[in-house]
Amino acid sequence: MTINNKLVIKEVEDYVFITLGLLLYTFGFTVFLLPNEIVTGGVSGIGAIVFYATRIPISYTYFLINALLLVVGLKILGWRFLVKTIYAIVVLSLMLGIAQEVIPQDDDGNYVKILGEGQEFMSLIIGCMLTGTALAIVFLNNGSTGGTDIIAASVNKFHNVSLGTVLLFIDLIIIGSCLFIPTFGNTLDRLHKVMFGFCTMVIENFMLDYVFNRSRQSVQFFIFSKKWQEIANAIGTQMDHGVTILDGHGWYTGEERKVLCILARKNESTTIFRLIKMIDPQAFVSQSAVIGVFGEGFEQIKVRVKSEE
């Protein structure tokens, strides 16, 4: 398979998973959060606030604000990122619009609460777990749902600040604005919406960081085997993965032995173990989690270098 074919397949996979992530987000937002008038962060949260106050469909507000933010993020994130972002914005706008039309309503025109009355907090937990996971899926496939995600991705590109942390700060401002909207009822009612909004913010961003970081978690292997050359060759050729060979010396046996050192993604572990077992079932293998791996093939080092005076 040529490099161009691999790139095309990777791009197709990105769009497929981005679409699935958007579908999951739409389901969690419109089925669990919207019927209970739960305020969330992000542009969808702004759209929800506008909808609760004016009944203007969320898709309109969401699309308009994102169109403005796209112009701002163009120079920072580049065309490749923004092409997928534009795709996500258009698709999510359509999905939210369709979802608002198809979800069941009662005789008074209110959306039916799938968990029943008095289950607002449980709806909040389930909804935010779904939306947070959905955002992570989109980000992991080089996409964005637009809005505050564009701001978060811009900051994360240059600074080692997690996406969840940036979104947390922005969401504080959006959710806190509920205190100043008279149509949300008296002061106590507005305070309730803010408190619920803060809960959505914490749960959603926790799920975003958890899923995002878990899938990118790295591990370190030390492999001791007499067939070290065959194992290194298999990992290097079949997985297109780098292998470092270290010189080892056994204290008890006094034997010289080669030790393979490998840094890999956690989701590659099963493949590595399978290759080792096929070649040398008696190999001694040590696997450990590492806090971070930076450099070619892994994460970029995102710290500022002080200029020499």
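the 2nd protein, sequnce then structure:
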Amino acid sequence: MKDRIFAATFSENAVSVIRRHGIGIELNDLCISENLDSERRQTTTDVIRQEIRSAGVKPQQIIAHGPFTEICPASIDHRAVEMGRRRLDEAWNLLQNLGICRMVVHTGYIPLIYYPQWQLEKSIKFWKDFLKDKPSDFRLYIENVFEDSPEQQLQLIRGLDDPRVSACLDVGHANAVTRPEYPVCRWIEELGPFIGHFHLHNNDGKQDLHNPLTEGTMDMETVLRAIGTFCRPDVTMTIESRTCEESVQWLLQHGKISGK
């Protein structure tokens, strides 16, 4: 189980927790796009290298979260779309130089601005264009944020139909914005084998609080059972709570995922 657990570096003392428990690292240095600016790129690269060294992780224990600020594949303005694509390519180029081949990205869906069908059509084109020059061992995990049901994410992954692409299900996001008929375990059931990665944190069902796993309205033992029942046996998961020590310990103790 330990080789499937990661911790996000924005979490308090994440690097030391990762090293102590021998789990993987999810790098958050590229989330803010301006860290990829030419005058910041070397500093960003140096920080990532230091985090990897300090965490003591192997290449297969590294996932990077790509930039998500103002990256909207469905934007009506083509220049906004081009900016997002350029930022993602900058991130990929930096990660490639570091030998990192797994990246989490957001869908970029903004409700009340983009119709779901428009979002789907534009997103399929956007991600297919982005993937054209990426190698066969590249892995892209597309994460839900404001979607209120799993349908959009499911249609996107199916529409891309690419073995390099799978869903990243952020259970905290789903819990905070989902419609009442879509509890988190239903997301897991419907997305099932299309999920390659999870972001795990808890909240009150109303706000994206990034609480520890045991502090919120989700029963994480039930969530883990659903993962074991409906997802691939190699699915990975990142602790994305603001403090991670307690959540890592809990997951290592309760992470005997049952099911298929």
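The chain has nine helices and eight strands. The longest helix spans residues 78-97.
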